[in-house]
Amino acid sequence: MKIEFKKDFIERYSNLTSFDEFKEISLKPLPRTIRVNTLKSNVEEVKERLKDWDLKPLKFYDKGFAIEHKKKERRDIGNLREHFLGLFYIQEAASMLPPLILNPDKNDVVLDMAAAPGSKTTQMAAMMENEGLIVANEVKPNRIMPLGINLQRCGVVNTILTLHYGERMKGKFDKILLDAPCSGTGAIRKSLKTLQIYNTGMIKKLSYDQKKLIFNAFKLLKKDGTMVYSTCSLEPEENENVVNSLLENFDDAYLEKIKIDGLKTSDVVLDFEGKAFNSEIKKCLRIWPQDNDTEGFFVAKIRKNG
After folding, report:
1. Beta bridge partners of 35
2. Rounded-to-integer distance, Cα 14 and Cα 10, Å
3. Residue 67 in contact with residue 5, Cβ under 8 Å?
4. For 93-141, what is the HEC assignment?
5. Three-state SS letters, the chain
6. Which residue ranges in the chain fall short of pLDDT 50?
7. CATH code for 31-91?
8. What is the pLDDT of residue 1?
9. pLDDT of residue 233
10. Which residues of 274-289 are buried (b: 16+ CB within 10 A; e: fewer)?
11. Is 154 one of the catalytic residues?
12. Structural domain spans, the chain
């Protein structure tokens, strides 16, 4: 596959970050990372069972590890017995952040609005110790099966699956995770195809859909409830712009400062293509791939003022 960064992509991203650094890291393989599933195991047991592998703890999460074979003889961690048994979940490091920031507990009723394939759903279920309730929603029927399989493999019993358009859902929830469908420009390292299909028209369409999702998610949130909006996109239109639209349309929406020890972050975008965003956007989290050798990610923590 020929790897080519389009001219408009280069121009756009050169205004957002150091493009040379971004390009260099984007063409390197992602470190393989896993999350210990505490519903079925613990860190000590997983380390003991994976004696042939080096497990390096992530700086910001004690259940997450970078994993590499000691003799460099294999990379197929998905074929390990411990993976089939659900003792760990193969999950990109930055992907573990949204559930950590939402921080659901045993008494919460939680909506995971775009749940498949289940990495964040299973993480939240473990954080809740299989208590409370998670509604794991997906809009595409063909994505429900892998979601259900992952929940079963990980021993999750506090979750129900729904097949629905997120922007049309009803109900009331204590906490909501909206890990929105996005362009994936932060995950180029995982899918170089993103560079081929990239175009600004696609970004505008995604931004429009994301606004519909976040508006309805906020309506479903109980007073004093917490919502996390996240994407693996680095596009301001899909991130700061979407959160800014929420603040413009809902007077009872406000942002909470996000602080994760051990995680390097970058400045958010407060002005894009002639539009100035609310200064509260500074409280959001923007991570470039070169910051922590991960995927790029954006996270906003939103509270509904009671």
Report:
1. 64, 89
2. 6
3. no
4. HHHHHHHHHHCCCCCCEEEECCCCCCHHHHHHHHHCCCCCEEEEEECCH
5. CCCCCCHHHHHHHHCCCCHHHHHHHHCCCCCCEEEECCCCCCHHHHHHHCCCEEEEEECCEEEEEEEEECCCCCCCHHHCHHHHCCCEEECCHHHHHHHHHHCCCCCCEEEECCCCCCHHHHHHHHHCCCCCEEEEEECCHHHHHHHHHHHHHCCCCCEEEEECCHHHCCCCEEEEEEECCCCCHHHCCCCCHHHHHCCHHHHHHHHHHHHHHHHHHHHHEEEEEEEEEEECCCCCCCCHHHHHHHHHHCCCEEEECCCCCCCCCECCCCEECCEECCHHHHHCEEECHHHHCCCCEEEEEEEECC
6. none
7. 3.30.70.1170
8. 57
9. 98
10. eeebbebbebbbbbbb
11. no
12. 7-16+94-304, 31-91
Q: What are the tokens at 235?
A: 């596009």
Looking at domain 7-16+94-304, its CATH superfamily turns out to be Vaccinia Virus protein VP39 (3.40.50.150)
Tokens describing residue 29: 């393989």
